[in-house]
Design brief:
Elements lengths: L3 E3 L2 E3 L7 E2 H11 L8 H6 L1 H13 L8 E4 L9 E4 L1 H11 L1 H39 L3 H25 L1 H4 L1
Antiparallel strand pairs: 1-2, 3-5, 4-5
Helix pairs in contact: 4-5, 5-6
């Protein structure tokens, strides 16, 4: 998943994949939809939030991560903040403002959608390659057309493979 950016504010993630509510608060403040009373600590003390966290913990299997993790002060290089699972991120954004809630949903969609779009492009490319091979098997004039199609198909495949798996190539 690519970085999530809301109102020009990058939202950090911890090692377990939870999102930083402090960054979301900063983004909402920048947009003008949040106040100091919308701090993550205030949100986490609300009875509705406490009930939501408890429900998430009840449904959790032994492999689950805790829904909320707060990292305070300490050693240099330690990422401080209140980190929450996606469900709590949505609840936090909804608590702040309906427009901000939509911003968060759209940011998640953008972050996940880019990868999905690349896979759809790769599927379309593979379909075109197969179609080209089938045409080439029917006759010599179609074989010449296939030879002209191969270089652009290879270039597009290389581009998509690099975009889909950048970390494997570095």
């Amino acid at each position: 998943m690519q970085d999530m950016i809301i109102s020009s504010t990058s939202v950090r993630q911890d090692a377990e994949g939870r999102f930083c509510l402090n960054d979301l608060h900063r983004a909402a403040m920048a947009k003008g939809t949040a106040t100091k009373s919308h701090r993550p600590g205030t949100f986490l003390k609300r009875p509705e939030t406490v009930a939501l966290v408890a429900a998430m913990e009840r449904r959790c299997t032994p492999q689950c991560i805790t829904p909320v993790s707060t990292v305070k002060g300490g050693a240099p290089g330690v990422t401080q903040g209140t980190f929450a699972a996606k469900t709590l991120v949505y609840a936090y954004a909804m608590w702040i403002d309906a427009d901000f809630h939509l911003d968060v949903i759209e940011a998640f969609d953008r972050a996940h959608g880019g990868q999905q779009g690349l896979w759809l492009q790769m599927q379309a490319l593979i379909s075109r390659e197969v179609e080209s091979k089938v045409k080439a098997s029917f006759g010599s004039h179609l074989m010449l057309a296939r030879k002209r199609e191969i270089p652009p198909l290879r270039n597009e495949r290389q581009f998509l493979e690099t975009a889909i798996q950048p970390s494997l190539l570095n």
